[in-house]
Design brief:
- The structure is a single chain.
- The longest helix is centred in the middle third of the chain and has 11 residues.
- Strands 1-3-2 form a 3-stranded antiparallel β-sheet.
- It is 47% helix and 8% strand.
- The chain is mainly alpha-helical.
Length: 154
């Protein structure tokens, strides 16, 4: 089980995540938010289990990383793997800091383990795996390599 770094009251969690207390109660009941217990009449939750804040789009400074789409059309929650891949592949220090604030370290580590091999270059995958001290599987096999072997070409 993951160690808890930050304990929040439900009131503070609602303020940070921009959700109502009622929605957070539902998230606790469904298991999306990790409840640590009650102290008095207030629920205590793990800060790392909170969903990202609602209603915030991508900052305009990320526009050059997404030349094919207007930056206002991208949903940072629904398209999280693509956003993280573009930031970790070609973003600067401030953009990586924004991603850490927006998604949190556990989400970035999970991305590196699950989606990183398919979405990042081997160089970027190795760099970020070492930076976040996480084991990542090797880079995904190039689909061209499998086709060449299948057809006996090259």
């Amino acid at each position: 089980m993951e160690a808890v770094r930050e304990v929040l009251t439900l009131t503070e969690a609602a303020r940070r995540s921009r959700r109502s207390r009622r929605q957070l109660y539902r998230d606790i009941a469904s298991g999306r938010v990790r409840a640590l217990g009650r102290f008095g009449r207030e629920w205590l939750v793990a800060g790392s289990s909170l969903p990202p804040p609602r209603g915030r789009g991508l900052p305009g400074a990320l526009g050059p990383l997404f030349p094919e789409v207007p930056i206002g059309r991208l949903d940072p929650v629904r398209e999280q793997p693509m956003v993280l891949a573009r930031i970790l592949e070609g973003g600067n220090r401030e953009e990586v800091r924004w991603a850490l604030r927006r998604y949190g370290r556990p989400a970035l580590v999970r991305f590196l383990r699950e989606d990183g091999p398919a979405r990042l270059s081997p160089k970027a995958l190795l760099f970020w795996g070492l930076t976040f001290k996480t084991k990542t599987s090797g880079p995904a096999r190039d689909w061209r390599e499998a086709g060449r072997r299948l057809w006996g070409v090259g």
